[in-house]
Amino acid sequence: MNLEDLIPTDEICARYKVKRTFVSSLYESGLIEIITVEETEYVHCDEISEFERLWRLHYDLDINLEGLEAIQHLLRQVKKLQKQNLELKNRLGLYE
Amino acid sequence: MDFIDYYKLLELDKSASQADIKKAYRKLARKYHPDLNPNNKEAQLRFQQINEANEVLSDPEKRKKYDQYGKDWQHADAYEEAKKQQQASGGRAYSGGGFGGGQGSYSYSGNFDDDTFSDFFEEMFGSGARAHGSGRGRHFKGQDFNAELQLNLSDVYTSHKQTLTVNGKNIRLTIPAGVENGQTIKIKGHGGPGVQGDPKGDLYITFNIVNNTKFKREKENLFSNVSLDLYTALLGGELTVDTFAGKVKLKVKPETQTGTKVKLKGKGFPKYKKENQFGDLIITYDVKMPTNLSAREKELFQELQKLRS
Hints:
CATH class of chain A: Mainly Alpha
CATH topology of the largest domain in chain B: Helix Hairpins
Number of helices of chain B: 8
CATH architecture of chain A: Orthogonal Bundle
Mean pLDDT of chain B: 82
Helix content of chain B: 25-40%
Shape of chain A: elongated
Low-confidence stretches of chain B: 90-114
Strand content of chain A: 5-15%
Pfam family, one (chain A): MerR_2
CATH topology of chain A: Multidrug-efflux Transporter Regulator, Chain: A, Domain 2
Shape of chain B: elongated
CATH class of the largest domain in chain B: Mainly Alpha
Protein name (chain A): MerR family transcriptional regulator
Strand order of the largest sheet of chain A: 1-3-2
Low-confidence stretches of chain A: none
Number of strands of chain B: 11
Number of domains of chain A: 1
Order of helices and strands of chain B: HHHHHHEEEEEEEHEEEEH
Number of helices of chain A: 4
Structural class of chain B: alpha+beta
Mean pLDDT of chain A: 91
Largest sheet of chain A: 3 strands, antiparallel
Oligomer: heterodimer
Strand order of the largest sheet of chain B: 6-7-11-10
Order of helices and strands of chain A: EHHEEHH
Largest interface: A-B, 30 and 32 residues
Strand content of chain B: 15-25%
Radius of gyration of chain A: 17 Å
Number of strands of chain A: 3
Largest sheet of chain B: 4 strands, mixed
CATH superfamily of the largest domain in chain B: DnaJ domain
Helix content of chain A: 55-70%
């Protein structure tokens, strides 16, 4: 894994002005992945969008960790259903 | 430009307290927040509206101006100017001022567009009136852009380069063959600029593919109906059919029934991001009966009928 693609969690905490416990609790709940390289913890840059979404939901809408877990689960289902719906709509074209 | 009733948007009456506004805003924000409504443009628009309403009503200065002028907002500046003159000549003091700050505003660089304020808002409070961000910190990369691109089905049969204009910038990109209707692709680094050397955001393009052909498509397979005359269907023969890549000759088996399906392997649509791999073309025969029979033809068919009965 390219180290350039990893963002240290300390930097994330400073940039988003969040406590380290917030990042840790997201990791412990399985909401984000934390990668440890030589005792330094990082988040992959591809996961930043997901982190930002959780950060907004937590701080803007006052949603607690349990709520975030439920939302993430439901959003995955929504996206899966949206994908399925699109596939079915495209398939429906065969019978029109 | 129409007057926007911010109270109605937040489902409040004019006597609402700051606590009521906060509560109503939070309730609606939870319902329409774009993070909770993926790919829902209606929710996104509604969220922008309630965000704007909150921006005005949660700020006592802005709310005062809004309440004072209401539907006559277009004349607000003229009224204020008149008041200032009145004040200078010993009239009643006016406490109006700038509109900085604000509470609870959203500033995003997520996978949805930034919050856009209405022309009504900009006109009444000025373009610098909105509060930028909640001051919690900045993001790691620039804003992600979303764009929709309409293409014909025939356009995506082959990979091709196309120039798109996104936010005034021309981007030349390769559209891979076989892209599907509704599919979104990410173009890394073509979103908004990053701050202080941070990486640029990404560009997400969703394809809207219009079928301009006689073929029907399901993923990489194509389907078409081919008319077959009665005599070829009965006795067999040769037939030339259209495929996406040109015409091909087909042998028709004797006694082919209407609705018979024939699969032409590899004559379908290209498989997305799989070079030189194609789906199949499935042809359904539609046997056409002859019409306007002559007396002689009728006679012969009657003869055939007798042979069968």
